[in-house]
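Ticket #4471: complex job returned nothing on first submit. Input attached below:
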Amino acid sequence: MVKKHVEVGTTAVAMAMRQINPDVVAAYPITPQTAIVQTFSQYVADGKVDTEFITVESEHSAMSSCVGAAAAGARVMTATSSAGLALMWEILSVASGLRVPITMVNVNRALSAPINIHCDHSDSMGARDSGWVQIYSENSQEVYDNVIQAIKISENEEVRLPVMVMMDGFIISHGIEEFETLEDGDVKNFIGENRPKFSLLNIKEPVTHGPLQLFDYYFETKRQQVDAIYKSRLVIREVGKEYEKLSGRSQPIIEKYFADDAELIIIVLSSTAGTAKSVVNELRKEGLKVGLIKPRIFRPFPYYELKEALKNTKAIAVLDRSNSFGAQGGPLYIEIRSALYELTKKPLIKNYIYGLGGRDISLENIRSVYSDLEDITKISRVEKPVSYLGVRK
Amino acid sequence: MKIVKKGWKEIPIGGVILEAGNASDYNTGDWRSQRPIWNEEKCIHCLQCFVYCPDASIDVKDEKITGINYFYCKGCGICAEICPEEAIELIPETKVSETEIKVSEMS
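Support reply: We reran it on our side without changes. The output follows.
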């Protein structure tokens, strides 16, 4: 039976964690993530889960504990934000390099300086090459769904990689929304038993994790890792189909909203997709052929899906909620532009950096983007490839 | 032992080591850029090189040096430095002939 809740987004994550009942959670508080582990620690104190909750002195220690516990064969979860993710930086690639499954929720928050607690994607985008699977969520329902699927993706025999699930700081983490949860038993059956591949606690088959590999084997190990994250594409799709059967909610790699016949398309991650959808609704009523694409998965990057979805589009605006300083645009734009390179008929494409440090993105902002796209199609060229949406002149 | 390095599809994931004590299989000799050449005629078998070698690369039998183990020797040159008779000479690996390279792959 479906249960409906009206709660903040962090509670949706904590509820998913309670149903997952991980063996170990090692976490450190940081705004706006704190409410996740705070709510979860109450479940631990109340005996609602069997989790060993490790309170640590920093995020570096949190991720290190997660790696150790996962290598020991435990099902492990954690959560962080911004500077916390930055402090985990070293251990992120240890986790993916050692091929230990870990599920982490990152509540997107800007990086300092200037110090700022609000949403942008510079934290997780900075970690995009750390070898983690990255899933972005639009709302509380999606973050709940993604966290449960992340366990199954991460522990898959072909994948064995850590998974990072993103939600927008404050906008979703502290916004009250309605969402549905599955039955506890259904979640338990869906994620199944954790079957660690090489457990440190299995004394019958002793193994060494994390030995030195220099120029003789490091490259081969990294090549394997490339293969694993590549194969995770299929696993993410299969897990999504299975989850859809259970929940009734589809789990596309990229969500297409009025995109099939659209001439002008906005591509954006996370909560801004919700804002953009209501603009699409308005403009469709006016008869404009506009659409939206929201990639749910950023790593592995869904270039096949995007190339296929965009081949008949006239003009595309990619909205990035982070900078890549000195690059040719934001991270999402760079990858999408690259994905379109092989098309013989290339759509026009423009990048907007928006919403840094939690700057609001309004319906009017989104409308102006579609209006820019119309102008671009009229002159058939993009004069300014990268613009800054919502910044004062 | 001929060293055959495994391909990326053949090794366990994440660099995991599945057997105990396999450090002896590690061909640290391929770190070497300088090669010690032992001159048997000059050697007085004082075994100083054996004592000072930070690895286990000086082969000894019945208290006599029998050669240098290039499978492990990293070419640090301590043996050449410590030898009182200049019986060990370091030469760059680039100057080692093809036949000698083959020898270095044996242990």
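Chain B has a mean pLDDT of 89. Closing as resolved unless it happens again.
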